User: Fold these one by one.
Assistant:
Number 1:
Amino acid sequence: MPTIKMMNALKRLLLETSQGGDIHLSKIEADLIQTDILLDEAISKLTDGFMALHQVIAEQQQEFDLLLSGKKAATPENLAHLKDLRETINRHIQATVTGLQFQDMTSQLLARVMRRIIGLREVLKIVNTGGTEIKPEQNPSIHDIEALLDKTSVSMGDKMKELETVLWRAVRQTRMESGDIDLF
């Protein structure tokens, strides 16, 4: 007959398994949402940047064509306009490169998600291992079962703490411009 102590140990083990798993799955979900936001923003920046580049380069080409055909004179004002177009192109290129930097941020987030999944799998293996340690044919005593539940619960708690320690560094950047993490 199960004792109150054994039932409490089992209840604690199941509760810790459920709560720990839920915490890490919630963090995985948050990282994936953050990754999706970064990807959407980066794709938008890249699209806008390439469209703006195309427009300015086309305008610059028209100016060159007019100068080369002699339909427009190489006045200081026209040359200044070409210089302004070149600077605008450089600004658009820099903005587009910023859009490419999302790869580093999303790689960090996805790597952390994978480490969290692997860690959670290791935590669940502890529960599985604990469940296979005592064989029913060995006719374990209540004390053996209580000890196993306690040992499994402590091992699982230690593994959860270890997992959280490894993953403590948050990728805080939720927007491309916030600059909270190192890029490249």
Note: The CA atoms of residues 66 and 72 lie 5 Å apart.
Number 2:
Amino acid sequence: MFKFFLKKNFCDGWDNLFSILLSNLLFIALFAGSFFLIRFAATINLLAMFAVIIVATGLLMSLVFAWGAIARKIADFNTPSISLFFRSLKESWKTGFIFGLLLGVFVIFITTAFSYYLRMAFSGKSIGLFFVSVIAFFTLVCVMAMQWFLPLYFLQETNTFAKCFRKSFIIFFDNAGFSFLMLLYNLFLFLLSFPLFFMLPGVNGITLSNMNALRLRLYKYDWLEEHPDYENDRDKRADVPWDQLIADDKESLGERKLLSFIFPWK
């Protein structure tokens, strides 16, 4: 399943380069403005800087959530329109803004606590090293779980904010290995974005990655609902017939040989 995900995600990204590039440019512009505003706020006092960071993160995530509707369309083998971004921005900006606010608070809290206990650890206090390890593990778990928040919001439209939050952790604990692989893959996309100035794949390329991954992974839960004897048996639960579940997606994607990316008319 993961091998097919990699192929599908690459194909979807290639086929929608312009959409990803354009949306990333908008994100970069807002990020640049936020960066200079944060630097200015830092000259006032620390509290002002933290306040600007939190609000800026909220605004940035509003844009990411707006593009989430486009990512959903792409993941479903549909062609999105530019107008969908603005419709989605109108409908999802509040959820994205709240998520961003919480993310900003989380980042400030974690970095402050981590630096405090790290200094304590370097001073020779073992309790500092213990808390550094706890914070690092807690952060890792939260990051792997929150990969699924935005996809859940768009793939399961009846979910409330609280349900998306709770289900993100449920999916993580039920698919810890897969979540870790996705974290590594998203880290690869993040590092790949540096030489491309985050125009590609960038933030929205990673958003598409998570959307594709969860869309495929949710097939597992549809299948388990139809086979309750597997759902309640830990040994059987891992025997998900992925080839059968993603057969339609494989057919929809097609072969997509290397030459077709360079010469799409062939």
Note: The first helix runs from residue 2 to 15.
Number 3:
Amino acid sequence: MISFILNQRQLDIREKPGQNLLDFIRYQQDLTGTKIGCREGDCGACTVLEGRLRNNELVYRSIISCLTPLGNVHGKHIVTIEGLNLEQLSPVQENLLNHGATQCGFCTPGFVISLTGHTMSSQPSSTAAAIASVDGNICRCTGYKSIERAAISISHLLKDKDPERPLQWLVNNRFLPPYFAGIGKRLSGMAQERPPPGPAATLMGGGTDLMVQQPHNMARARLDLLFDKEELKDIRAADQQIIIGASATASDIMQSSLLQKHLPRIGKHFKRVSSEPIRNMGTLGGNIANASPIADLVIYFMVLGARLRLVNGQGERTLPLSSFFIDYKKTRIKKGEFIHSISLPLTGKPYLHNFEKVSKRTHLDIATVNSAMLIEVHEDQIVRCMAACGGVSPIPRLLKNPSAFLTGNRLTAANLRRAAEVLQTEIAPISDVRGSAQYKRLLARQLFMAHFLELFPGRFALNELIS
């Protein structure tokens, strides 16, 4: 049984948990305002809001319904464009209209949902945040400046939002229908966890890649959905380590105060991982288990010395994240095991760490090449250096040779140029739809140098590193 609130109605249904939410909304509930676009999470036309109780607080996030397994909405409030209807246009809808931010209208429901989700954030609004809230939505005919102007106007309307009772303020100011005021109480009376599926079920985290690659298989499969397992979502410090649960989403990680303390650039870096709705859905464990050679979170945490905790019914084991991958889409996970968490060494000061990525789109795109670096420098001497690169071999690659070359050497432009040459001996990119092998080699070199330009501003002139 899957129980959730869809707009104003509570549904108790017996459906396959791997069926996607988009098809259920449109074909079984006749809510056709949620559009079918790419079915890959790229366009945002199927965006809906997901409300859930966390520590007795009702929290809303935007999600992509085409990649959401129906089982993941159990115990939650799902809001489609129809669920925002009032007797008059809301300020979000009104501003999109007044700024000419809609033309054919196909993408408009997704923009309304994303911008409304921004109004529901517990964080103060800003023009940058309002514009960023629609980074997962594509408009193919209007042009984005009118949408940006609408987002800016909406942000200005939120300057007086009550931070203590934001939902009630939004209801009072007709951003939301009145029924939202009672959703928290209704959800608290519902079971938040689904019964266990029993033995032989396939484990799945966020499913953002599986739902693209194998939607029909997932719709029929017997699944054990890990997305809402609270014991797998924890982010904490313990025993001189930072522990990140496998079901923590990219948004959970990005917004963690503990990780922000030790990785001050994490907010900037994770803006490049994907769009906001996908960050709200994609899990750390899923990104690792998918074993993509360009997995952003793998590259990001590999250089930090991350260790994987693998668990099965009989016990557990740990191994370095860098040694988890054997070959393309092949890992060291054994039958019956699942990824429980990763751990990072807890240091007394923030990591000197950087992440770079090149893709065809700034947001919501798979990397052509990505790269990360951790470095320690004392009195011009490189004490430690760890670099990693994705998209240049069949697996995410920890670059041992340039790291070893730099460790113990002075931080000079000449040494960095030599390290970039050493890097080329360790990678073997192939030509594919994202770029030629030669282009990827160039990107690997440029991103390697970009780490030093970012981490040591003013220390090197660009022409010193690329000459």
Note: The chain has a mean pLDDT of 93.
